[in-house]
Amino acid sequence: MRSGKSAEIKAGCLIVGDGRIMENANIGVRDGWIVEVSTGKLKGDYEELVDLSSKYVMPGLIDAHVHIRYGLKPDTEPKSDDYQTVRSLENARKALHAGVTSLGDAGAIRNVAFSVRNAVNDGVAVGPRLFVSGEMITMTGGRSKTPGQRLEVDGADSARKATRGLLMYHGADFIKLGATGAISSPHTGPRHPQLTVEEMSACVDEAHKCGKKVHAHCYGEKGISNSLEAGVDVIVHGQTLTEEHIRVMKQRSMVLMPTLKTFCGHMDHLGEGGVHDRIITTGIWEETKPNFRNALEKGVTIAMGTDAGMPDNAFGDNPLDLGYMVDWGMTPMQAIVAGTINAAYSLGVDDHLGTLEQGKHADLLVLKKDPRKDISSVWRSLEKIMLNGAWLT
């Protein structure tokens, strides 16, 4: 990733990303990093002065759960990995120009997402920061219609080997597990448990040895219980959270990634069949809002993850997830925190992303209006985007 000139940025209102606000703040940016932040005079000398004293400045958004390889509609015929890689890069670019400066890809076949990540990191292509799990680890047949479509495991040793392969051969940034079926699963219901505790525990052990987080796709009480027993870090979707689940998640500082955008989006396409209608017939939708509100009220850490790439869940609309969070009970500031530092924490990168502080990457958004008053200002009044210290053109 290239970085721009060193710059002193004068922000009328600096939204730090962790709930704090700094009025009339000055930000020093050099070599793609924030080197100082102050409400007084900066200590360093910078090549340019950027006056944003009438604007609102916040961290770039982090969408920690997407699938960049997919099109807006399911493919009617198989697409090559090469084709999917090109489509992935375009999807990532659309998210970036909507203010999402980092993406967590939570399941792409073979080298597709890794290739896009590496090309962006090497400066070959322009895109957001990508943190990639590689293929989701599932039980045999758990998410496949035919053999060989997914990274399938049977038993703890098999699961351990699969995790090691992702981490050691591909440099996976986190690990994604299939703890239950999905709304779209061909053979099972979304609440049916899949990977065993022993299998997931082996994956968690290997990931944690490398300092990597583990995300578990799960619906239903048993799948969530298995995931918690195995020691995962992030519960994705998470319908049917019990009070005991919430207690454990809070005690361990775990994250819930409710992916509201995909569920609310399905409701806009009822009657079209497939996954859209299955959100009703499986009973998932009726749980989604009360489940989210209960977790929010009980103080569970919630992070932004849109599931973009699922049917009719478009890249470029990613920030709308924050709007659904506010509609369902969050304050705008809570939603901003979910889409910045909490999302960074869910990917294990909060030491260098998620807030506008010294020692963090210079990824930021410039808004014309105050998102604390209206969360839609994040996308409706977006004026400029800085990625790695360089303004997008």
Briefly, what is this?
This protein has 393 residues and is of the alpha/beta class.
Structural features, described:
This protein is α/β, with parallel strands linked by helices and 393 residues long. It folds into two domains: 7-59 and 355-391, Urease, subunit C, domain 1, CATH 2.30.40.10; 61-346, TIM Barrel, CATH 3.20.20. Helices cover 33% and strands 23% of the residues. Strands 3-2-1-4-15-16-17 form a seven-stranded mixed β-sheet. A hairpin with a 2-residue loop joins strand 2 (21-30) and strand 3 (33-38).
According to CATH, what is the topology of the largest domain? TIM Barrel
- Terminal residue distance: 15 Å
The structural class is: alpha/beta
Please, what is the CATH homologous superfamily of the largest domain? Metal-dependent hydrolases
Q: How many helices does DSSP assign?
A: 13
Please state the CA-atom Rg, rounded to the nearest Å.
Answer: 20 Å
Summarize model confidence as the mean pLDDT: 95
Label the CATH architecture of the largest domain.
Alpha-Beta Barrel
Strand proportion, as a percent range, falls in 15-25%
Number of E-type strands:
17
Shape: globular
SSE string: EEEEEHEHEEEHEHEHEHEHHHEHHHEHEE
Assigned CATH class of the largest domain:
Alpha Beta
Major sheet description: 7 strands, mixed
Q: Report the helical percentage.
A: 25-40%
Question: Are there runs of 5+ residues with pLDDT below 50, and where?
Answer: none
Structural domains: how many: 2
